[in-house]
Amino acid sequence: MTDLLTIGVDAWIIQDGNYPDFARDDRAAFAVEFYASAALNQAEPKSSLLPSLVNTEPAHYEALGESSTWPMTGGRLMSARFSSARRSPPINVRLGNWMSGEIYVGVDPYFYFERLAYQPDAPGLIYDWRVEKIEMQTAPFIKRGRMIIRDAAQLGWKEIAQTDAWADDYGNAKYVLHCRRVSRAGRRTR
Q1: Three-state secondary structure call for residue 61
Q2: pTM value?
Q3: Number of other CB atoms surrounding residue 64 within 10 Å
Q4: Which end of the chain has fewer CB atoms surrounding its CB within 10 Å, N or C?
């Protein structure tokens, strides 16, 4: 796994009080979660396979890894979230299976440090990170039926020096942190 990641964080995660606002050059401690909006694919096991993350867009990756200890993935760097709730892994995920697919990588809002870290076999997944750059989504919100969503035709990012979760985008900001992992060993507490 890489030590340099683009990691998404929505304003509500900061507003919940679990993290302060982030600033460029900050050192922050958090676990990283991944979310697969579509089913992950089982990859054929080959002796030449290596875990990989290929950045496809901000905070999105094409991932390949071995399911070593559910809900962890290759390198034990991330915890997993499927749909909007924690639940068992998909039926085709078994210990030692290689899985691939597109994932969103984000700051763990609280699932790991409030719950998963207390499971007896949970590895330490909280690392220290250096925030090298911060970007904020610039697309305006539009109304689609009864929903309000970002205008997909105007998606874009602007660099900012620090987040202001309560004021940026009227408290609805979406950020990407460009982070470098600085601690080698993960831990269960911040």
Answers
A1: strand
A2: 0.84
A3: 20
A4: C
